[in-house]
């Protein structure tokens, strides 16, 4: 390893070699220990050499190497073949780094010294800080200005708003008053900002005194050059450095604790500290009619045309429907008028809004609204009640501001951008009022299908995954063949016809003034595209012409997702005779079971009926991305359907489901995410404190483990062990343990549960919430086993992986005092017990409790 000092900062360059017959696990362990000792996450590093892992293959060795590197935020560059023989090509040499990839170039060439090509790596490292300025027009939303704004609004009597005849007129007058007050209290000003100087705020009086003491000791040592003064200098320097480090850690911890989005705050601190991101906004260029254009106005208008016409372009792929979108669903229970709101409801809605600084074209963010809650509640209540009684949605609330966000690929191709829509904040309040009344109507008369798990009370991705897995396992237990079709719907939220949305709402009982309100809400919507970029230090905002949006539910709205699930509420009614449907918003899966001789006919019929429904309801199925997966040991006997891709696995709601329900591929994918999160924990621990690093653990590491765990946690003991190994590495970082020290006590001290405990908790609480049979339901005797569940008789070992079965089984093994609890008390007591009893395997739990 070579250590270079550039601008007082180290750059580590390491040569590595593993023989072809060398043990990969040992090699990776040595590399990991070296990176741990070097604290590679704190410094730029380059790893170069012959690792004898071919990056041209997608095998397990590549995954292992990638996982180790990712946990230190190091990535392997893709090199062309570095060893070529008459019969083979392989890229077994490597260049790996944690430097920004855009600053690293690599190439290979023949050196004549070996049968391998040589690797040349060139990197750009800044040796001086840029001192750039830029200016832009901004409003200052400091506390003093917001206080002034609130006072101005409190002084208004709002008579013009109250006396307005229509909701449209009332909102226009309301916004005129609010805008005048905003311009007075928080005027637009040209702000000239200087690039931030790193770490300037990490200084206090004690640090200043320590610095002064250090400089005095330095002066004394320079004068005398004796050993005693040298020791005093080293001690003073260490005290000064430790104080600065503590101040930096406290500042980082405070920033993260105050942040609403803690994950975003963590990454901001890490990226600012590493200075990997350039704050200067580059000039946007876009290919228009075969030429690359840099005129922001032309680009904004071209993007707006592209975004507003995407629905019509998508629908061109649909054949002409053979049947009408008629639904037999008719409730017999009507909602003619919305109940009026009051000031308390409006205040609570505003109070519960997430505080954000982003705003639509009216410049009113939720931050402003929450600060001025008391002064705006009365006029807003008046406007909203006019809107509800007249069935009128103010037109000013229908204008969306759209930011183009680059996804991937070339930045000059418009297809590589997706629109991020921002609607007026006041629109969200009105929509939340209507949403509450709409859902009350649907819940009161039980109008929502049980098959829809998205945006529905008591449902989630977890319930969708559980129902999905239960269907497969139950039918395999009955000896049936099981297959599924994962439908890919293109731009589903954007393509819906407004007339069809209103038709479906009418069938759900939304009538009279209520349906008129929804008609007003959907029609005459417009959007603009806004681009912000800097030229010669001046940041300018460019807006496109407004264009009409004639289809779809409004993106970024409160009502949009719910309108979509109500629109597709009749899919099960249409398909129930042919298959079982599982839905989470637009993620739609068809599940079928049966015997081999009739399953192909059932599958073909169900799939075509689903296509027919989509064609008749403005939903476009992307058949190239629609796939079929069969399940069970006899899955090869399940017939394939023509023109549908047959796979051995599919991703459903972020979980990779394989044909044997082994969940191994999902665990592979999970490990990659955990390794990336592990790096963040290490960096956070370095630049902050243990408490903040725990926030990083829970928000970026444990959330990945928890997601879908109740379903995939029934995987093999080996897969759980693979996750536990990474979890232990995270615990060692938090507890500052050595590479081989035990983590069991640290789990308890940090109040963190191992993956096995998390799984035990999930399935037990799930089983406790289901109507399952306990011994006390079978007799009236108060026996010590009365709280134990009756386990169903079964044939397949796979059946024991069902969340309900495993939950009952593990619940039966709990201490008697825990088995007596239910509801919240069970959850609290079980959590406390599992924190104090960390288990590394399920067998350990079972053996200890038997």
Automatic annotation (TrEMBL):
Single Gene Ontology MF annotation: catalytic activity
The record's listing under InterPro entries reads: DNA/RNA_pol_sf, Endo/exonu/phosph_ase_sf, Endo/exonuclease/phosphatase, RT_dom
Q: Which PROSITE patterns match?
A: RT_POL
Q: Give an example GO biological process.
A: DNA biosynthetic process
A Pfam cross-reference name: RVT_1
Ranges of residues in domain Reverse transcriptase: 386-657
The record ties this protein, via Gene3D superfamilies, to: Endonuclease/exonuclease/phosphatase
PANTHER family noted in UniProt: REVERSE TRANSCRIPTASE DOMAIN-CONTAINING PROTEIN
Q: What is this protein called?
A: Reverse transcriptase domain-containing protein
